Amino acid sequence: MSDASEAQARIYEERAEAYDALISAEDADGQLVRALGEIGIDDAVIADVGAGTGRIARLLGPRARKVCLVDRAAPMLEVARRRLEAQGDVDFEIHLGDARALPLEDASCDVAIAGWVFGHFRHWMPEGWAAEVDAAIGEMQRVVKPGGAIVVIETLGTGHTAPRKHAALDEYFAHLELRHGFARSWIRTDYQFESTERAAEVCGAFFGEALASQIRREGWARVPECTGIFLRSRAAERA
Questions:
Q1: Can you list the alpha helix ranges (DSSP code H) found in 102-195?
Q2: Which pLDDT score is estimated for 234?
Q3: Cα–Cα nearest to 23, from 50, 5, 44, 47
Q4: How many domains is the chain partitioned into structurally?
Q5: 102: which residues sit within 8 A by CB, 6+ positions away?
Q6: Domain of residue 133, CATH code
């Protein structure tokens, strides 16, 4: 794992509150809720894989029967618990565990969503990332009922108004589409902050000084972001 990747990985263990400040400002126009609402989340049991501080659970939980949050970083899950308890309209379970060995029963969920999770495998495990992704997708397949939806959400570029080209991530996206049969769409999930300086501070803490400098240079309080949604049904599983 590179030094930059190690530093970002530590954020999930050591800076959960800072990460939550970032994701709480995301999707200012509610595009993600609308897009995911079309896959059948009403009264569904949702597996939130790599749940972090509960971004997906907070958005979709009010419409779901239950959300089962799984993450391997206990500090992130503790923030998620507090946020969901304060929100008060989500029935949820917290599970400490890995995406490649989900602590959930077979066919126990209607929908499985992995938001901004597996792209890290491509960066952190450059030699074996495909096998790690395959294992995680296999676990999502296992816990979702036949015919249920499996969704992978990934960044297509923060600070970009249209999907960017990125050689490593594009290879991973092609793997999702060609190996696993996911269909891709994309939306804008812009961040909205109270000021340019706050945008630079929060985004810079996670994405680095280059983006912080761009935000200050452009005078952005609203930071553009493109997000890819990769969708498939268990009915589309391949042999």
A1: 119-124, 129-143, 167-180
A2: 62
A3: 50
A4: 1
A5: 47, 49, 70, 95, 139, 140, 142, 143
A6: 3.40.50.150
Assess if residue 31 is contained within a domain. yes
In terms of Cα–Cα distance, which of 129, 109, 128, 120 is closest to 73? 120
State the Cα–Cα distance between residues 226 and 7, nearest whole angstrom: 23
**Residue 72 and residue 49: Cα distance in Å, rounded?**
10
Q: Establish if 219 belongs to a structural domain.
A: no
Q: Considering the domain boundaries, does residue 150 fall inside one?
A: yes
Q: Report pLDDT digits (tens) over 102-123.
A: 999 999 999 999 999 999 888 8
pLDDT over 60 (residue 9): no
Q: What domain range includes position 9?
A: 3-195+226-234
Q: For residue range 43-95, list pLDDT tens digits in order.
A: 999 999 999 999 999 999 999 999 999 999 999 999 999 999 999 999 999 99
Residue that is written with structure tokens 């970083």 in the block:
73
pLDDT confidence of residue 153: 98
CA distances from 152 to 84, 85, 136, 209, 233 (A): 22, 26, 11, 28, 12
